[in-house]
Structures are given as C-alpha cells and as structure tokens.
Amino acid sequence: MLAFEIKINDSAPMVVAADNHVIADFIYGVSAINPNSVLIAGFDDFNRYIWLDGEIHHNDEVHIRLVDVGKDKVSVPLKTTKESLERLKEKYDKLQQELKNKGLI
Where do the structural domains in the chain lie, given as residue ranges? Predict the structure, then answer.
C-alpha cells in the first residue's frame, strides 16, 4: 500500500496510510485560527485516524516521502474514531441520490 513517511525534526518517522485518504495539513501563519498547527489524519469507510495533532515552528525540519509498505508497517494512530452508523447512512443516501440524478441507477 502507498503511504507517507513523515519525519519532523529528530522524531522517529511516522508511516501513515488509510484505505481512503490521508491528509497532512500544515498551517503556518499569523492569520490562521491555529497558526502553527499540524494535523496528520486519515480515514476509511468506518474509521477516522489521527497520527499527529500538534504544532510546528520556524526552522522545524519536515521530511515527507511516498513509500510502498505492507499494512503491518503503518504507524499506530494516536486516536481512532469509529464512524457512526447514522453518518454512514447519510453518506449512502447522498451517494444514492447522486447516482439517481446521473441516471446510473
């Protein structure tokens, strides 16, 4: 599976991957709500994962590379949140309507 290997300063590299999406969101600036934030998260159909929710600072070194790894090499998330059945039903209903509107079902 394709994954991001992310290393910040001297920390151990994180290998982050999820079945649907992985987001590495670095915000640095005075006008942002949380101006030094870094969020590394991902999600699949049933879970939301957070590997890092912290801060970055001037002169921090961030190295990101794309790697091909087995699922067993993905770093354990700091937090995993289960997707609610209600939310999944909302997604299903929205997709069903979208497919009907396009004449696909």
Answer: 2-101
Q: How far is CA 71 from CA 45, 49, 50, in A?
A: 16, 14, 16
Please, are residues 45 and 97 in contact by the beta-carbon 8 Å criterion?
Answer: no
Full pLDDT tens readout for the chain, 105 residues:
999 999 999 999 999 998 888 888 776 666 667 778 888 988 887 888 999 998 888 899 999 999 999 999 999 999 999 877 787 788 889 989 989 999 988
How far the first Cα of the chain sits from its last, in Å, is: 32
Q: Which helix (H) or strand (E) holds 100?
A: helix 85-101
Output 49-52 pairs: Cβ under 8 A, ≥24 positions apart.
49/16, 49/18, 49/77, 49/79, 49/80, 49/81, 50/77, 50/78, 50/79, 50/80, 50/81, 51/14, 51/16, 51/75, 51/77, 51/78, 52/6, 52/8, 52/14, 52/78
